[in-house]
Amino acid sequence: MRTKIVAGNWKMNTNREEAFSLATEVSGMLKNEQISAVKVILAPPFVHIGAVAQLLNGTGIGVAAQNCASEVSGAYTGEVSAPMIHSVGANFVLIGHSERRAYFNEDNALLAKKTQLALDHHLTPIFCVGETLPERESGKHEETVFSQLEEGLFILPDTLFSKVIIAYEPVWAIGTGKTASPAQAQEMHAFIRGKISNRYGDAIAQAVSILYGGSCNENNATELFALPDVDGGLIGGASLKSRSFVNIIKSFS
Ligand code: PEP
Question: How many domains does the chain have?
Answer without folding.
Answer: 1
